[in-house]
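Dear colleagues,

I hope this message finds you well. In preparation for our joint manuscript, I am sending the WSC-domain-containing protein (Polyplosphaeria fusca) sequence together with its predicted structure, so that both groups work from identical material. I would be grateful if you could confirm receipt.
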Amino acid sequence: MKPSRLFALAASLAIPASSTFVVQCYSRLFDQRADPIVSPNVASEHVHTISGGNGFNVTMNYNKARASKCSTCNIKKDLSNYWSSKLYFTAQNGSFLSVPIIGDNNQGNLGGMAIYYLYRGGPKNDKLRAFPPDFRMMAGDSLKRHETDDFAGRAVTHRCVGGNGPETKSLPNQPCDQIRAQITFPSCWDGKNTDSANHKTHVVYPKNGNYNGGECPSSHPVHLVTLFYEVYYDTKGFKNMWYGDKQPFVFANGDGTGYGYHGDFINGWDVPALQKALDICGEDADCESRASFTMRTQSEAQECKLAPLINEPVSGVLAALPGCNPVTYGPADASPQSTCAAPKLNLKASPETLGYVDVTKSKAYRYVGCGKDVAGQRTLNAAWTSSADMTVDKCVDFCKSRAFGYAGVEYAGECYCGNSVASNRAPVVGSVGNCLMKCSGNKKQVCGGAGAISLYQACKGGSCTNAVKRESRRLAAVDLERARAAAPL
Ligand SMILES: *[C@@H]1O[C@H](CO)[C@@H](O)[C@H](O)[C@H]1NC(C)=O
Ligand SMILES: *[C@@H]1O[C@H](CO)[C@@H](O)[C@H](O)[C@H]1NC(C)=O
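The corresponding structure tokens are as follows:
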């Protein structure tokens, strides 16, 4: 599996002074109209790019976050969720094209975001507190379309990488190789409420100094660690597509200015572990090693993916931004879209949401999830074939005719057979894994990914059901217990 470029890029960044440590979210769970803070239990108004633990859902609490089985971010003690609005390009013909995040490729890898944990104690060098359980907050204002010079306004910025402009609060007015969307969160907490009606007023920016420094007011006396999000959008491919007199990018919330960029955070930390890291690190820059965090690998982060919650395309070429989000350029605030009919959530585990083919009846093989593979040491190595018109059916037929217990499709056109799957190659419970490549012979089917294999197992005895939990779309993945019982892995 090719490593995403995010790590290399982020590692070469000038880390802001007194950055205690960086949570590297190598990947994303998905891009989706979901926001458990602002729109619990329904489709949210616009599309977000969402990273963190796979306990993420349309509604969730701290315990759900802590119950995550995997995360797209690197520090193991952190199962928080981090999200912000997704960027699109408005083409001259009126279509909207999703803008890739650095690290996205067409083999199933998704790029992510970098979350800086900044130790900014202010002039009195306050001892910083970890986020408490159940804590959540948002920064930025989705409806804003004009520049302001208050701390909330200064906290949203855009860096044009490969251009020659300064950091701007608006989206850059010139073509850039990359646009780095950035937002700093408030760090002064009222010490009582873990959320508030507008998800903002329980926290404020410092009262003086700067938005990421300064003293906390007496109304919000508890000084928290400062969060700073960075998302790198790969805008190089759009450089020659500019037209007219406005910059052509737009955030998913219909924001053609950049002033309405916003971010959200749900705490999923092992709180004592975060507090210990803050205590050890203090203001020392770059103290990941002294904090002695255990890290997930990039490929573990890549394999952590959620199935879609809504049946609607959010990437590629779109006729409109998902939801009701007319593009506005200010300076007046955008109007809230209260009359837009929200689509139904699709929370069932189904072949469509989970990317598998039901061949239980036709071939007596059951889907058991998306496993890992390694080129030099195949997960299934007893027989193989490849084809420019591979399908799940063809691969299962190939392995079945040779009486193998497992068939696996990979990298769009490869098919492998074997009789067992090592436990370190087995699917992760609750994640759809990195199997996102369409089959070379049927674009409606999924045939694994790069280093990721869609696994089908021969049924034994009477029952033959796909190993996905029906009641939960997160399912998704696999019911490993059942898979193990059916054939020891
Ligand atoms: C509009 O233009 C974009 C960019 O060239 C292209 O990708 C897209 O397919 C076009 N949309 C339609 C509906 O033709
Ligand atoms: C996600 O939330 C929905 C709506 O509350 C719920 O029906 C579903 O069971 C949840 N999924 C998981 C895996 O908890």
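For the figure legend, we might mention the following. Residues 41, 57-59, 347, 472, 474 surround 2-acetamido-2-deoxy-beta-D-glucopyranose (ligand 2) (CB under 6 Å). Residues 5-318 form one domain.

With kind regards,
E.M.
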